[in-house]
Write a structure and sequence with these properties.
Layout lengths: L1 H12 L17 E3 L10 E3 L5 E3 L5 E3 L15 H21 L4 E3 L2 H8 L1 H10 L13 H10 L25
Length: about 170
């Protein structure tokens, strides 16, 4: 990420202590040792080149375009790789939650909240903005009825990620 590279250069020029955690490096190249006992909040992230950082030393975090974790290709089965991938992803999410009381640029859970199109419609309505008539459905009949009621003047949007190509309805396709 070239934006992060520029910030890293600036922090280095100023002599500030920092560590860059690229999520795709966890757990293959970046490890964790975290013993939780008797209220101890210590935990250590182990970076390449023997760099270690105690979680209690972290004062601020910047969450920027994370990439899925890379698990070891030495895991024999696809089930083991999927399990390790899920555990790695869950650990990182838990780490962000653990660090919630630090200064954040783009706190992950707030980003997820802001990405919710459904919640944004609710907020826009509460703020008095005029929102278009909206249907969110898994029911094809409801979708057809809505399409008809709107005289075909509809826009489709995903509520998550991805796309699907739609063709105008006619007598052949429904």
């Amino acid at each position: 990420d070239p934006h992060v590279d520029k910030v890293v250069a600036l922090l280095t020029d100023r002599g500030w202590d920092f560590e860059r955690l690229n999520t795709e490096d966890f757990p293959k190249d970046v490890g964790v040792d975290w013993v939780i006992a008797n209220g101890d909040k210590g935990g250590v992230l182990e970076f390449p080149l023997q760099n270690k950082i105690n979680l209690s030393q972290i004062k601020s975090c910047w969450y920027r375009r994370p990439i899925s974790s890379n698990v070891s290709i030495d895991l024999i089965t696809s089930q083991a790789r999927e399990f390790a991938q899920n555990e790695s992803s869950t650990f990182l999410k838990s780490l962000w939650i653990f660090l919630f009381d630090r200064f954040w640029l783009s706190y992950p859970l707030k980003i997820r909240h802001a990405e919710s199109k459904i919640n944004n419609l609710k907020l826009a309505s509460r703020l008095g903005l005029c929102i278009p008539r909206t249907l969110i459905t898994t029911n094809p009949d409801s979708a057809k009825k809505f399409f008809t009621e709107c005289n075909g003047n509809v826009i489709t949007k995903v509520i998550g990620k991805g796309e699907i190509i739609l063709y105008p309805m006619n007598e052949t396709n429904g």
